TrEMBL record:
InterPro entries cross-referenced by the UniProt entry: NAD(P)-bd_dom_sf (IPR036291), SDR_fam (IPR002347)
Source superkingdom: Bacteria
Keywords for this protein: NADP, Oxidoreductase
Protein name: Short-chain dehydrogenase
Pfam families (UniProt xref): adh_short
Gene3D superfamilies in the record: NAD(P)-binding Rossmann-like Domain
Source lineage: Bacteria, Pseudomonadati, Pseudomonadota, Alphaproteobacteria, Rhodobacterales
Keyword check for Lyase: no
GO molecular function term, any single one: oxidoreductase activity
Keyword Metal-binding: no
UniProt xrefs under SUPFAM superfamilies: NAD(P)-binding Rossmann-fold domains (SSF51735)
Family: Belongs to the short-chain dehydrogenases/reductases (SDR) family.
């Protein structure tokens, strides 16, 4: 079956790695994001790699007016529609502490914007009875930590949303997979010291494709984060709030 992928946040480094692998499989790509110059470059690259189509289109998680045109473009395509969400922002926690108004943008980028888009897309996938949704969250969403609790709270909310969406759409033949990366070598993590078990965008993309093939519901990448976060979630709150992790 012909595959069309909507990629939200398609100019990000992780999204680009995922897009390249889909292009090599001959998928059609709708590259949605804010930086149109980057999206056009990525579209040209995707076509050169074998994508059946690659269309750049404006999308801003903070502007719901940009959502419907992306969905309309997808609905014009034949075959199966899929969506991968790479949208998110993570300013330093101390900057948000100094300017609480920044919180709104982080939550819109990392949770409410993508969730609203998926809520609009969901009925169309239900009607078709097929498709996959990949929602990229973070291990930071598994438990609030002093160093990035606003970002973690947004990603935790998104993971809970995806869990409910999975329950809804799974009954209609649509697969929803939550991806929880640890630190990834991207612009978002540049300048951060002592990040454990760093992985690469290519490795994350490979893990996502393997997870889709296996029908995974929740995917930690690197895999070592699953036992680590299982332990961290089990730490009693009176102990955890005294820790600096």
């Amino acid at each position: 079956m012909e595959q069309t992928w909507i990629i939200l946040g398609a100019s990000s480094t992780m999204a680009r790695a995922f897009m390249q692998k889909l292009a090599e499989q001959g998928a059609g790509l709708i590259l949605a994001g804010r930086r149109m110059d980057d999206l056009k470059t990525n579209a040209s690259d995707a076509l050169a790699r074998g994508a059946s189509m690659a269309e750049p289109i404006a999308f801003d998680a903070r502007d719901p007016g940009t959502f419907q045109p992306v969905i309309d473009l997808a609905l014009k395509q034949a075959g199966q529609i899929n969506c991968a969400v790479f949208v998110g922002s993570m300013p330093p926690q101390e900057e948000i502490d100094a300017d609480p108004a920044m919180l709104d943008g982080v939550i819109a980028d990392s949770f409410t914007g993508p969730a609203r888009f998926l809520q609009m897309l969901a009925p169309h996938l239900e009607a078709r009875g097929s498709g996959s949704i990949v929602g990229v969250g973070s291990v930071a969403g598994d438990r609030g930590r002093i160093g990035n609790y606003v970002y973690g709270g947004a990603k935790g909310g998104f993971a809970t949303y995806l869990s409910g969406l999975r329950n809804r759409l799974g009954r209609e033949g649509v697969h929803v997979m939550t991806v929880k990366p640890g630190p990834v070598d991207t612009a978002m993590t540049q300048g951060m010291d002592d990040l454990p078990f760093m992985t690469t965008p290519d490795a994350v993309a490979d893990d996502i494709l393997a997870g889709l093939k296996r029908g995974k519901n929740v995917l930690y990448t690197r895999r070592i984060w699953w036992p680590i976060m299982t332990v961290i979630r089990a730490i009693p709150e009176p102990v955890f709030k005294k820790m600096s992790i």
